TrEMBL record:
A GO term from the CC aspect: ribosome
Keyword line: Acyltransferase, Cytoplasm, Ribonucleoprotein, Ribosomal protein, Transferase
N-acetyltransferase domain sequence ranges: 18-164
Protein name per Swiss-Prot or TrEMBL: Ribosomal protein S18-alanine N-acetyltransferase
A Pfam family the protein falls into: Acetyltransf_1
NCBIfam families per UniProt: rimI
Species classification: Bacteria, Pseudomonadati, Pseudomonadota, Alphaproteobacteria, Rhodospirillales
Organism: Azospirillum oleiclasticum
Similarity remark: Belongs to the acetyltransferase family. RimI subfamily.
Length: 387
């Protein structure tokens, strides 16, 4: 049950029968009316509202005046992370100037805190001056811009607010790690590698699909559960080393990764051959191989020192699907690792949701392993010292 704020109580006394509650499917006709009256483009459809209110990992909030819906807020949550997103937010024109937006925003923040979320993020049209003023008055800060974001080509400002009472306002790290969204289902490894390489060598690396595919070709295991092969830790370490980076590989042993992801003996044999070839090539490099794993605290220390961890995780805790997945640790503080995830899983999520995702250290250690063999692999990338 949502707890009314003092501003809500005052408005209820002044205006009359006001209620703030969770939205339900029966509210959809009223929500569609508000969409029609509030937006010229980029309106949510009946299908989208139904999905968000009944199936998504989301919370819908409405304020009603005398039983009529005066405004709504939709907050998306992300499994495995402490991040929430204000996905959609609107007040009926007849009820503007009555504090509805302020109360709904406070309720959205309250709902995010109740789910232990550290940040609430959103996008807003650059020309929506009243909304921007509301957000900034509530402590939101701008951290990026989407160009050509809306149907009419208007750009969107990216805003966020730290909901925690203490701690730094942004991840503490040695470098600014840019974000790159993978363009294919099987290129998370190359995409994660590109983000780290660009942060370390910004003038030498261009983030492009050509590089994404080239890195995949260099580091693929050839076969995976089905379809195209994924990228193994040794192949990725070699790809980073070839581009002038200092590479440390933390992995428990030199066995062929991902073998349990295929059933065919012929495919397993091909994967072994590829892996053995990678190992032979790596023996002729100065890549440092450590037969141990990095803890979340180790990774935080490495980030503060200017290195960038590229980490293999199981996707299950985030996507509820079991496949190996590579992410980048882009920042750290005492409680969280801040992770860039190159995969944008569905159309309700934008890359704003996958940048600097705050993940509690204990949760990250549980997800940083894959398969029956509990494979744990981290590439620690930094600048290579000149000889």
């Amino acid at each position: 049950m949502l707890q009314p704020s003092t501003t809500f109580a005052a408005a209820q006394e002044a205006v009359g029968p006001i209620a703030l509650r969770t939205a339900v499917a029966a509210d959809i006709p009223a929500l569609l009316t508000i969409e029609q009256r509030s937006f010229v483009t980029d309106r949510l459809t009946r299908r989208s509202f139904h999905y968000l209110l009944t199936r998504a990992n989301a919370t819908g909030l409405v304020e009603t005046h005398g039983g009529r819906v005066a405004g709504y807020a939709l907050v998306l949550f992300h499994a495995g992370t402490s991040l929430a997103r204000l996905y959609s937010f609107a007040v009926d024109p007849d009820h503007r100037g009555q504090g509805v937006g302020r109360r709904l925003l406070e309720a959205a923040e309250q709902a995010a805190r109740a789910r232990d979320c550290l940040y609430l993020r959103l996008e807003v049209r650059r020309d929506n001056v009243p909304a921007i003023a509301l957000y900034k008055a509530h402590g939101y800060r701008e951290f990026g811009v989407y160009t050509d974001y809306y149907e009419d080509h208007m750009e969107a400002l990216r805003l966020e607010k730290r909901l925690g009472a203490t701690g730094p306002s942004a991840p503490v790290g040695g470098r600014l790690v840019p974000y790159y969204q993978q363009t294919l289902d099987f290129t998370c490894g190359p995409s994660a590698l590109m983000m780290a390489m660009k942060a370390i060598r910004p003038d030498a690396i261009e983030l492009s699909r050509r590089l994404e595919l080239r890195l995949w070709r260099e580091s693929t295991t050839v076969f995976m559960t089905s379809g195209h092969g994924g990228c193994g830790p040794v192949g990725m370490a070699l790809a980073a080393w070839r581009r002038g980076l200092r590479v440390e590989l933390f992995i428990k042993d030199d066995t062929t990764p991902f073998l349990d992801s295929v059933r065919s003996d012929d495919k397993k044999e091909v994967m072994r051959i590829v892996h053995d070839d990678f190992l032979e090539e790596m023996a002729g490099t100065d890549i440092a191989v450590h037969n141990r794993t990095l803890t979340a605290d180790d990774m935080a220390d490495a980030v503060r020192a200017g290195s960038i961890p590229v980490v293999l995780i199981s996707s299950y805790r985030i996507y509820r699907e079991k496949f190996p997945h590579w992410v980048v640790v882009a920042g750290a503080d005492d409680r969280f690792l801040y992770v860039h995830d190159p995969l944008v899983h569905d159309h309700h999520h934008a890359d704003i949701d996958r940048m600097n995702m705050p993940i509690p250290k204990s949760d990250f250690e549980r997800m940083a392993r894959y398969g029956k063999a509990q494979l744990r692999a981290t590439l620690l990338l930094s600048e290579r010292a000149e000889s």
